[in-house]
Specification:
Number of helices of chain B: 12
Largest sheet of chain B: 9 strands, parallel
Order of helices and strands of chain B: HEHEHHEHHEHEEHEHEHEHH
Mean pLDDT of chain A: 92
Radius of gyration of chain B: 18 Å
Oligomer: heterodimer
Structural class of chain A: alpha/beta
Strand order of the largest sheet of chain B: 5-4-3-2-1-9-8-7-6
Shape of chain B: globular
Low-confidence stretches of chain B: 1-14
Helix content of chain B: 40-55%
Amino acid sequence: MTIAARPPRGGASAGAAPAGHATRSARSGRAGVVADIAARRLSDVRAELGGRSYRSLADEAAAYAALPGGAVRPVAERLAAPGLHLIAEVKRRSPSAGAIAADADPIALARAYEAGGASAISVLCEAHWFGGSVADLTAVRRAVTLPILAKEFVVDERQLPVLRATGADLVLLLACILPAAKLARFARLARELGLEPLVEAHDERELEAALATEARLIGLNNRNLRTLAVDPEQCLRLRTLVPNDRLVVGESGVTDPRMLVGWRAVGLDAALIGEALMRSADPAAAARAFVTAGSVPHDVAAEARLPLVKICGVTDSEGVLSAVRSGADAVGLNIVPGTPRCLTLTEASWLATLVRGASPAGKRPRIVVVTADASPAETRAAIAAIDPDAVQLSGNEPVAAIASIGRPVWKVLHLPDGASDAASVAADAIAAGRAYLAAGAERIILDTAGGPFRGGTGRLIDRGVAAAVARELPVILAGGLEPSNVAEAVIEVPAIGVDVSSGVEQNSSTGRSRAPRAPGSRPRKDPLRVALFAKRARAARFDRPHVPVRPTPVPDALLEPDAQGRWGLNRDFGGRYVPETLVAALDQLEAAWRQTRHDPRFWAELRELQFHYGGRPTPVYRADRLGAEVLEAARGLADERQDRLPDRLRLYLKREDLNHTGAHKLNNALGQVLLTRRLGKSRVIAETGAGMHGVATATACALLEIPCVVHMGVEDIKRQAPNVLRMEALGAEVRPVHGGSGTLKDAVSEALRDWVTNVETSHYCLGSTMGPHPYPMIVRDFQRVIGDEAAAQLMAIEGRLPDMAIACVGGGSNALGLLNRFIGEPSVRLAVAEAAGEGIGTGRHAAALLGGTPGILHGSRSYMLQDPGGQVIEAVSISAGLDYPGIGPQLAALMEAGRLVVSSATDVEAIEAMRQVARTEGILAAVESAHAVAALPGVLARTAAEGGEPLPREVVVVLGLSGRGDKDLAALGLREAAR
Amino acid sequence: MTAIVAPSTTAPPVAPAGTNDTAGARRIAAAFARAASENRAALIPYVVAGYPDHETSLAAALAAADAGADLLEVGLPYSDPLADGATLQRATSAALRAGATLERSVALLRSISAARPDLPLVPMCYANQILGGGDGRAVAGRLAEAGAAGVIVADMTPDEGARFEAVARELGLAVVYLIAPTTTPDRRVAVARRSGGFLYCVSLVGVTGARTSLPPSVRGLVAAAKADSPVPVAVGFGVSTPAHVRMLVRAGADGVIVASALVDALGPDGHHVAALSRLVGELRAATARPNART
């Protein structure tokens, strides 16, 4: 690439700018305006600095750094804090944008940015094209306390010490104007001066050169500096190529704060924003909006998925403080004699005191003292000196040793190296782990074996073995973890925590190639790597709700469908029974779903909508009066087995009625309509029974501007008129379905016909966990937020999971939404209440499980109401939302496997329960949800009657209040008249 | 950094043998061969069992047979026919109201079979009617015993059909599969290989129902199906006029299936058997292949 030196247009003085509008590459030649700028900079710098040596300039920089106010302001650890941070830029004009703010006062702007929460300020230093100057940089530095980025075109190494001496803390280095060797050299020189280099790339070739330097900050620029064209997806694409031990800054093209939600989710650590801030009328507010958008949202369900982080082998105060600052859940103090990180008892005791003192109130890391084959006397002495929260046994301690320790025990299992038989290694580890847990150990840590010391070798455990063990036992994963590999580890292995020692130490400048330990020196933690490790480990799971994160003994067949969409121990429920015409669309939907369900950006953006638009999370509310009446009714039913009933029922209502649109349906509708965009479809079809799914879909389509058609049976239209009006008010077209019985099943059939006919343009937004694969999985994936939240909320309130989860069930969306989280937890009983209509014995009901038989309905094999000839029988229920003759295949699978208690309530009982909930708690529950309330006394009585484990004396039950009952007031009224 | 799970493929598993080597498939093949030897496509009318009532549907079936059917499809009425448009929905509802049951439909097949033993019968139904919660042996056995040569299950693709094919093989029944304009080329090959007797080529993206015109793309679809299929290709959905039939024959179809148009021909009360007979005759005349160019 030739850098042709060109004089500026229109003026001889150094301060004159060429015409400020965009200089396209056509005018500047193939190399673009950036080459012009670089060339001009080179000649200017040579003119300014004359024959001055690098050495003399470096001395000046050192002198500056020694002055008060001259010391470098560190930025890396700020960016390694959770979330995406703002680097706010001061810039008067640019080649791409022309004049932006010619009269801008950089000091006022910088202060506004600081007030708005920016983490650093970027100051343009280039005069001719950007209207910037080094004087601006110095002035800004004096005005704020934040680190300052010199946004400069560095082409001569002597610019580096000059920038430091004028107050820069970071410096931009462009891979597009520096050949790779020079880029690496400049990065090294910058770091030697204390300047943090931000090495910027726009494409893969430049990124390769950037990654080959020792820079810790990598900038990914959406703008091509040669053509000035901006592609807002470029930094997201390139992010996947940057190892996780670098900090990554996205640049250019950010116009809307909402973009930063996705940027944070894909793992960008900062955004460099200039024009959008410079053009705003209130820069502090604008900065605040960007900072807020990039911050980690408070999401209890997501937080419950995060792995524990243990920083082990801490050897000094800096290590303790960095662990505390990064929010580590545990700190390991090694007292094993002869190991590199071994502390004396005095040192360990002092560090433990520091942990306690330095931690914010109420939240401090657990102090774990690490021993290996210590004698009882040594262990006692360590406990007495250090007062740890737990003792880690890293040697060959037998199971019998656990009981005598006297403190919680964390036991390390060492997996043999070079395992050829992964299955038997895993099996042995599982057996050993179970034995230790049974003997009372609190935690199990998986580590590698071999080397001169047990564990702590920095070698990785075989992922497959680790995953197999973590699936069965709660384990903390150790062995060779570090910032660049921990994210993959916690995605692939359902470990409950991660443990790191050498991976966060100061062995090498990039941390990727680990230098061998010098004998006699004690390794020290690198605060940046500690912070980054914690950040990457947590971020990996925060926006991935479907990655398994804990062990479960429940077979996968009850938790996930196979590739053909079949559920159940015999893999015989579900599947895909559809006309051939729909296969291509279902294949496309499935392929898109398999990608999307693990795409953090999708989930972060959906969460934004659910939280800020939908009103999530929904509360759990303890309904004491209702609970007391329910327990009393259960006593009446249990008769002589009353003694086996609990003394007290803490009944929590999970309030999906408080979701926007008044039911849980929006969780699925928002997700599927967002997915519709990804599929490139331009129209949404839905079916609806009660109208709640129709309203939810119409709502999501109005929000996301996609045309919507809702098929609704004529009978349902009659009994749910308010919902029809709502859908039409939201802009949806409601099409009456006359065929069959004019209810939900016929609406589903008609929606499927619409889809068969319009499959190329339309997405069918199915409302429940039924239908052909992949719908049962997709709808479950969108509704599971209900139970994920409820579990986290109950853990916070009760300190444990509920003893039972119960919900009404029609197709299964609210039931699986609540129950999904608990299927894999054997201590939680699962119950559903079907709609028994006029009574199951009358044949006029909607209870597919209790009153139906296996069959194929609307694309999947499950239980359904049918006559001996296989004709579908109409369901009968006062509740339009449960009035469906089938049920989702996963629920059929759970029932057949004995994992689900199935009960029911009649219309009369449900109406009565509606009244009861209104009277006792002031909540108008939907008649659907009321079925669960009505059935609960019977379910409790049944548990008392059957053998086996009784319920605890103080029982915690969570009930899915799936929707509000305004739509059912008329039904209440009718029954009133009938009474 | 992220582990993206590769999209799963749902192409039908590489063939077990399908059901093309059954007695039923051979009868079907023979019917197509006979038509071919007469230099015409096979005509496959469709009647709804029990519409408008049992006796009339028998009369309609026999009339269709006599007016030139090479094979006869018989629809078994179902409460939730999601592949069917308004015409067939109406007819099947009426049949159910008039008392149609599986029993009576089987009896109908037996009657037709007794009266016209050389006419291969292919009942068409939905998965729940034939499989229900099981492997379909009971119902398929009765269909076979009543004279069916094959069966078409409108909502069962080869992805779900392997178990039923095994049952059908034992009973000597062909299981006919469908391809649609949305079927990908690879899948079309795979489905064709599994189809017994013939391959049902759905002409349009939609449900059943007479159309004024068929989409021009059907020609390409028929040509592609012919290239991929080891068994004869019959085209259905929307076919209602002699012009349609001629177009499909020119496009290379081995057979044409006509359903809703015949139900329409029976008139609003379903009794106009003579009109049905007339229409079948016209359609049959249209199946003649144009003479080869010299």
